[in-house]
Request: fold
Amino acid sequence: MPGSKDHLGDHPVSLGADAHGFWIIAKKLFLMTERERIRGIRSGFDVTWLFAAKTAFNLDDSAISSFAGMSVKTLRRRLKKAILLGSPASERFDRLAQLAVLSEIVFEARSAARGWMITPNDSLGGEAPLFLCRTELGGRQASRVLRAIEWGGVV
Reply:
């Protein structure tokens, strides 16, 4: 994309805040080493990444700001002033990206992955996998269910 920084190490990638941009960012994060991801989380991810996730999963402002752990007003201010996300919100985004790409691999289709990510799941206590990514434990639970689906095991 014109004007985008194709780099995830010390500086965030600035892609569009669209669904396609989310999947590009998510795949780049998925392919990075843990050390590289930690460095990115500590530096802070671009706030537009959250808006790309918002678009990719058809969320409203309230849902994406809740996911990030900040108010809608704070999220908009960060966007307007191009303020990077803090470590907690960046780590949440990283968990979301990891699970989204894994779900795309398991379901072999982005649309199926998207549907699984946003649909409440009985195996996850009625929560949507996307929103479980707010915590490490929730992200691990969603990942375990996804792996069980992949291998045909008990969920």
The chain has nine helices and no strands. The two ends are 40 Å apart (CA to CA). Residues 1-14 have pLDDT under 50 and may be disordered. Residues 69 and 89 are 7 Å apart (CA to CA).
